[in-house]
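REQUEST ID: PR-0412
SUBMITTED BY: lab tech R.K.
PRIORITY: routine
TASK: structure prediction, single protein chain
INPUT:
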Amino acid sequence: MRASFWRKRSKTALPFVFSLPLAFSLPLVFLLLVGLSLVSAPSWAQPAVEGDSLGDVEKEDVPKEDVEKEDVPKEKVSQVDSAGSEESPGDSSPDESTAEVDAKAQQEATLPPGTRLGLWGRPVKRQGFHFQLGFGVGGGPDTVGLFHEMELGWTTRGYTFGMVHTFIQNKGFFGTEKGGPDLIGGWMFQFKMPIYWPDLVVKVALGLGGTHEQADGKIIAHPGFGASYGVDFHFPIWPRFGPTLSLVFLNVTAEGQHHFGASGGLAITLF
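STATUS: complete
OUTPUT:
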């Protein structure tokens, strides 16, 4: 009696044992990559030394006779000093936000073409072949389990066009099945663009969606319509590569039924 019970229980308990380390290891891997990138920061990621900015120009020697000023009466100098000491309320100090924008513009001017500073203050270049592969945890009203996403595309002028394969595997993970499909997901056309910072990206995808029935080693697919949307938060180790935290919302309609799942995961990304 006990042996037969264990054989039935092991079908869901065994995947649960393997899925727990996967779920808890993803944040640790992300922190490890971030720490590695900070320790091995390349020269262009180091803060600029004061007095060594792009706008600094070496001063030429000026003849002494050109520098000498005419004698000014002492009383006039005192009048000028007293008048200049009265500061107007609007000229008490420079606008800090303007100074930060100018400093950022000067630093970006030293970067290679197509490269911008991101939210982390590190260079990001969104151009060329795009690839992203990620895993995490997802769930909804009738599904919960492993989340997966793979993106292939091309980035031009910061905008990415491509394909995405994404799903939430409900069966065999976390020891619970909510009675919905064994899997929801699809293949979709995707568009991505940055929000102000090049390492904060929104994405939306539309295309083929569907569900799976998995029994006796067979997969029965039920095609339908799929849509996904979400946000990517990159941490660039190099201008074109780094780990990514993803938040994705997946919608699938198949056989007259709508299925929804919200997912979070860790990915590696070639911007």
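NOTES: Residues 1-24, 38-60, 82-90 have pLDDT under 50 and may be disordered.
REVIEWED BY: pending
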